[in-house]
Structures are given as C-alpha cells and as structure tokens.
Write a structure and sequence with these properties.
By secondary structure, the protein is α/β, with parallel strands linked by helices. The chain has one domain (6-290): TIM Barrel (Alpha-Beta Barrel), CATH 3.20.20.150. The protein is built from 9 helices and 14 strands. The chain has an 8-stranded parallel β-barrel with strand order 1-2-5-6-9-10-11-14, surrounded by 7 helices. Strand 3 and strand 4 (48-50) form a beta hairpin. It is globular and about 50 Å long. Bound molecules: fe (ii) ion (FE2). The site of fe (ii) ion has 4 residues, from loops.
C-alpha cells in the first residue's frame, strides 16, 4: 500500500459505509487507534482489549487505502512517566497497517493519580512553552520516536485555558522541538479558528510564526457553539474562514503530505453523504492546485 498522501478522512462508524458508496473521494483513511481497543490503564495486568469488529472494519479499509495513525491517548505533555506501553501498542498498530505517518496532540490530557495510575481530564490542555519544559519535552519526544520507530508529528490543539506567561509562543516552541528532534507538525486550521473565535490569537499570526517546512499534514473541520464557547466539535462542514486559511497556507508547506477532513459521526445527518462529498471535493481542488513539489509519494 502506498503512502498516506492527498485527501484523507478520519475513521469513524460512518466512514466504511460512506466509502463503500464513494470509493474515490479519499486517498487515505486516518485512524484513531484508541477507538479500536479498550484501555484499562497503566496498572492493569491485561491493559489492552481489542475490539474485533473495529479492527475488521479497518482491515477492510486497509485493503484499499493507506492508513495514517492519529493518536489521542499519549498525553505527551504530562508530567507523569512517558507511557511506553501505550507507545508500544501504537507501534503494533502502525506495523500492522504499514503506517508511515503517526500524529499525536501537542498538549496533555492525563495527570498522575495517587497510586501511579493516570487520571484522564477529558480535555486536552496546553503545554507551557517555557525553556525548561522545552528540553524536557525534547527528551520525551525523542524517546517516543525511538519506540515508534519513526518521527511523530504533533498537532496544535485548542486553548481552552490560555497560558498567561510563557518564554516563547507555541509556534516558536514547536519550531525548536522540530529542529532538534526531527518531529513534524500537524497544523489543525480549525483549531486555530476556534481559538480566534474564542478571543485568542489570530490564526495568521500563528501561521507566520511557525516554520511551515515542518508541516506534514493539515486538518480541516467544522465546529459548533456550546454555551458561549466555540468548540472544535467536528460538527459538519468547514466554516469559510478555514477554507480561506487552507488556500493561503497549503501552498507554503513544502513537505505537506495530506489534508484530512475530520467530522464526528454523530453530526453526519446534518451533513449527509452529499455534504461530505462536497467537503472532500473542495479539499481535493485545493490539493490539485498545489505546486507539483507537494506530490511527495
Ligand atoms: Fe485535528
């Protein structure tokens, strides 16, 4: 199977049915491996319980499409010990499907419990971009990549809890990490849009500060309001502002391998197959207009 390049879709319960009827709308499928198993936690004797039906669906998709890996469970920014068991499980997933792009989130979602276990926060929080944390993060990322056997790419998250004081901005921090470790960046344009909607930094300021040579993948998605907060709920079509960002930034990422549309299956009725086809077609038109050097297969 070839590399996961071009236009991708994040795997969920709708995707196998959608792709059966719309085979050529995507070039690869991006799978969140944690949706394929039950994780009983670090202290469990039998920690991972596969969900056979979910693996069967991905096995079938893998016969036709390259698979990219998009982890949500590592919590690379946690102060607790690096979760090497989890990384080994991700490695097994990547080896099974010949994955050549493994992404994770730049943030933390777990804190250490009293018995050495982990407490999940239910939300990803930002990492303070300070000099002392930089060297600590570099060590964790290098160890993670050693277990994975390939570079990891880190995705910018939404800042639900902005940090007041930092030694450097997040894009500067990511630049430094990528330069030292060789990791890449997954630039989620909708997450930038969500921050902006909630009064945070301007997306273009973030993009201008980021070294776009490190960007290997771009995420696009839609969101929705919950109370007075705009969330990255993946609730349907991309807003126009995200398309504008994509048109602007994609040509400036010389090592870009793929543009992935994320949607949550619970919102599928709002969008329907036709709406999903339109999103993927719009992304494909932008991809097709990129300079030839973006065909990195
Ligand atoms: Fe994303």
């Amino acid at each position: 199977m070839g590399a996961a390049t071009g236009i991708g879709l994040v795997f969920n319960s709708i995707v196998p049915h959608f792709l059966a009827a719309h085979v050529d709308t995507v070039d690869y499928v991006e799978v969140i491996p944690e949706t394929l198993w039950t994780d009983r936690g670090r202290l469990a004797t039998r920690r991972y319980e596969p969900i056979p039906a979910a693996f069967d669906e991905v096995d079938a998709l893998a016969e036709r499409y390259p698979i990219a890996c998009h982890g949500i469970g590592l919590s690379i920014g946690s102060a607790s010990a690096l979760d090497e068991q989890h990384l080994a499980e991700i490695r097994r997933f990547a080896d099974r499907y010949g994955v050549d792009r493994i992404s994770e989130h730049f943030g933390f979602s777990r804190v250490r419990g009293p018995e050495g276990d982990d407490h999940h926060l239910g939300l990803a929080f930002p990492i303070p971009c300070d000099n002392d944390i930089l060297s600590w993060m570099i060590g964790r990322i290098e160890r993670a990549m050693g277990i994975l056997g390939q570079p990891i790419i880190l995705e910018n998250g939404v800042h639900h809890t902005p940090l007041i004081e930092q030694d450097m901005t997040e894009p500067e921090f990511l630049n430094r990490i990528a330069e030292v470790t060789g990791c890449g960046v997954l630039l989620d344009l909708h997450n930038l849009h969500a921050d902006h909607r909630n009064g945070g930094h301007a997306p273009l300021a973030y993009i201008e500060a980021l070294d776009l040579e490190h960007v290997r993948e771009i995420h696009i998605a839609g969101g929705s309001m919950i109370g007075r907060t705009y969330t990255d709920s993946h609730a349907g079509p991309c807003p126009p502002e995200v398309w504008d960002l994509l048109v602007d930034v994609a040509p400036r990422c010389p090592l870009l391998e793929g543009i992935t549309f994320e949607f949550h299956d619970s919102y599928f009725p709002r969008m329907g197959s036709e709406g999903l086809c339109q999103q993927l077609q719009s992304a494909r038109e932008i991809w097709a207009g990129l300079p030839r050097r973006h065909d990195v297969t």
